[in-house]
Amino acid sequence: MRSQGDAAQEQYITARKNPALQQVRRLLSSRRERETAGLYAGEGTKLLAEAVRHCPGLHTVILAEGISMDTPEGVRRIRVPAEVLASVSTMDAPQGAIFLCCLPEKQTFVPRAGMLLLDGLQDPGNLGTILRTADALDVPVALLEGCADPYSPKTVRASMGAVFRAPVVQTTWAEVRSSCRRAGIPIGVTALSPRAEDIRRADAASMAVVVGSEGQGVRREILESAQRELIIPMNDHCESLNAAVAAAIVMWQMKN
């Protein structure tokens, strides 16, 4: 590890229009920029500490003056005034650190019983929370079409380091359907339907279960192809649950 004291190896930047800082702004705001550059950005000292411990692709660390953090050898270090870092940050109260990581290589989808599939989940905070919960419960997750970018700064922050510990699998419904069929894994979907089975009585651990988007739920194409429909029982006056909460309940049932 390289310590904060290695000042000679740090680059000091004061200009807000420095090309390195301009790239960071683009990475924080644009999925296309992240995919083109092969990099994504995270913010905060606590999250940086998680990246130092768990992310093999840690690339660049930008620290405000007065912030002390150890970083691995070979990681680029940039030091900036606090007001310059604040001009780049997307946080209301910047914590003195922004860092860049290499996007991991695309992962092949492998069907597994007791896995969670996310369909069209668009809120990055919900996505990050689900990834964090899945990491805690050791539940494999795959993202289908239409999901938020798992490497957006909001998702990375909400995941609390889960995206560093395991690459996020992104795939298609066509691939999931064919792979699960070959593996003999039934697909269940969460649905508000008279046909849906109470999830407490279902063997969720034997299925791959789809949780749909916040507004639309699971796509009709998936609903029509799934072998099982599952419902989370709730009071009649409640229409639905937050997607991250619903996913957490599904994952808890998978483990129990």
Question: How would you state the average pLDDT, rounded?
Answer: 92
SSE series: EHHEHEEHEEHEHHEHEEEHEH
User: What share of the residues lie within helices?
Assistant: 25-40%
Unreliable residue stretches: none
**Tally of DSSP helical segments:** 10
- Overall 3D geometry? elongated
Give the DSSP E fraction (strand runs of 2 or more residues): 15-25%
Counting helices, strands and paired strands, the structural category is alpha/beta
Find the count of extended strands (DSSP E, 2+ residues): 12
End-to-end distance, in Å? 41 Å
From the alpha carbons, calculate the radius of gyration and give it in angstroms. 21 Å
**Sequence of strands across the biggest β-sheet:** 8-7-6-11-9-12-10
Biggest pleated sheet:
7 strands, parallel
Describe the secondary structure blueprint for this structure.
Elements: E1 11-12, H1 19-29, H2 31-37, E2 39-43, H3 45-54, E3 58-64, E4 76-80, H4 82-88, E5 97-102, E6 115-118, H5 124-137, E7 141-143, H6 153-159, H7 162-165, E8 169-170, H8 173-183, E9 187-190, E10 197-198, E11 208-211, H9 220-225, E12 228-231, H10 243-255
Parallel strand pairs: 1-4, 3-4, 6-7, 6-11, 7-8, 9-11, 9-12, 10-12
Antiparallel strand pairs: 2-5, 3-5
